[in-house]
Amino acid sequence: MPVIEINGVCKAFRDAKRNVEVTALAGVDLAVERNQFICLLGPSGCGKSTLLNMIAGFERPTEGSVKVDGQLVTGPGADRGVVFQQPTLMPWLPVWENVAFHLLMRGGQKGAHRRTAQTFIDMVGLTGFEDHYPAELSGGMSQRVGIARALLMNPRVILMDEPFSALDEQTRMQMQGELVRLWQHHEGTVVFVTHGIDEALTLGTHVVVMSARPGKIRAVVPLDLPRPRDITSPAFNDLKRYVLEMLHVDRSNS
Ligand SMILES: Nc1ncnc2c1ncn2[C@@H]1O[C@H](COP(=O)(O)OP(=O)(O)OP(=O)(O)O)[C@@H](O)[C@H]1O
After folding, report:
1. Among 46, 100, 243, 246, which residue is least crowded by beta carbons within 10 Å?
2. Interface pTM, i.e. ipTM
């Protein structure tokens, strides 16, 4: 059984200001299997974030269904960890309390929660920064805190919405490498929204190419490339050309 099942999903938003309906997604079907790393790629406004938000349970489909582990998604849950573009850290809490935030909210032994947080702080390479505050961290470090916080709940699915887009090129490439290593060591199912073709081809087991207005899935492209990915290799560039063609079909029709 797929971990995520999206069946016939449509999403319309009411634009109250202009008194019109915006169809963000129309007839989206997608099955995501365990341990797949799915990159959602498509032009701005094609509904990538809307689709991710529906898996996260922040939005409900207008039509169709979204299931995780066979259960209909009706709201957010601990089985789905979300990492946003901005890491949404609590500025008044040190790193370890930000990482352990959901555990601390549940109550219980603070010392035990700190030890649990430490495991994930170490995992994302922030050892020594446990007591730093968000204002003392770089963009990449803040994003690592967000990733550690999402991993700590041991979710079935990690949902990431352009988590590295605000980072400089070098930090982004480093974070991409670290994310792949984490995913390879701990396994799990990832859905990752990106604008970047290279990023999608570097990270994913599959790229889901979306078309715009209303958002639909144009193609699911399996990435049969060895890791670590070599962005200069002929195989990488063949796939890049194919994905670019998929994106361009959309542009030439619009
Ligand atoms: N809450 C909302 N209210 C009204 N319209 C919305 C809302 N959220 C999204 N939309 C519209 O739905 C469409 C899809 O938006 P969405 O943010 O999902 O696209 P996206 O592919 O993630 O875009 P980007 O790559 O620019 O972040 C857009 O036309 C957007 O204006």
Report:
1. 246
2. 0.97
